[in-house]
Amino acid sequence: MKKKFGIIGNPIKHSLSPVLHEYWFRKYNIDADYSIIEATDKDLPKIIEKVKRGYYSGINVTLPFKQMVINHVEKVVNDAELTGSVNTVLLDNDNTVIGENTDVYGLQAAYLKEIDNSSNKKALVIGAGGVSPSVILSIKKSGISNISITNRTNEKCIFLKKKYSFLNIISWEHLKSEIKNFDIIINATSLGLKNGEDFNFDFCDTKNETIYIDTIYNPLETKTFKYLREEGRRVFNGLDMFIYQGQKSFYLWNKINPEIDNELVELLNSKLK
């Protein structure tokens, strides 16, 4: 019987998850399909129930449901428990609906392992939404302890500081003047997303050696990413993180660690042009 997988979010049309997973389904001869599920919060119980009944073999979760879905799964484990953020749902051998997090692994595997993460480095996370707890934990695991966060609404930063007491909070109003103090900047907001808003200031005051990581992959180059690349900064877009988090989700569902080959990367890039 054909397996069914999907991704829930809103908005969700920009997602390349179906392209990613269906490539691997073909490569490993798995009879399955992967669909986009544009949902509301009221839909979550019904979708998770479909996982419980075996209709879905696995679900990915994206904005704005990464925290909300925790109320509907039966057990939260590993990095999902540490972050309070779920992006992968599966049914274990005991027929328990599990909430997992592969975003932490995705960020580490894609970028942080390549960076000299000496403990004296300063990191700034911009945004306090669904992916931010995963970004914070990933940075912390990489060995950087001086981590700051900023968000347009300060309440979300205060909430995250209750979970991660080591966080420093920078007010959004002071972001432009404070940005020169950081070695690594990670955009964990939706600013720059295709057809959406972008930052209303440039990043001209960043240090020459600053590393900028964008969790967005569609478009491949946001306005800020393009500006910093042209200014000679070291920049990474969100595509590699997306691929690696998907790789771990695929493994959790199918117990196969899929290869990330050039054909896959070229396929994904072609969808973003």
What does this structure look like?
- With 273 residues, this protein is an alpha/beta fold.
- It has 2 domains: 3-101 and 240-271, Rossmann fold; 105-237, Rossmann fold, CATH 3.40.50.
- The protein is built from 10 helices and 12 strands.
- It has helices spanning 17-27, 44-52, 78-83, 103-110, 132-141, 154-163, 175-178, 223-230, 239-254, 262-271; strands spanning 3-9, 32-38, 58-61, 75-76, 88-91, 97-100, 122-126, 146-150, 168-169, 184-187, 211-214, 234-236.
- The protein has a 6-stranded mixed beta sheet with strand order 2-1-3-5-6-4.
- α6 (154-163) links the parallel β8 (146-150) and β9 (168-169).
- α1 (17-27) packs across α9, α4 (103-110) packs across α5 and α4 (103-110) crosses α9 (239-254).
- The radius of gyration is 18 Å and the shape is globular.
- The two termini are 35 Å apart.
- The relative contact order is 0.13.
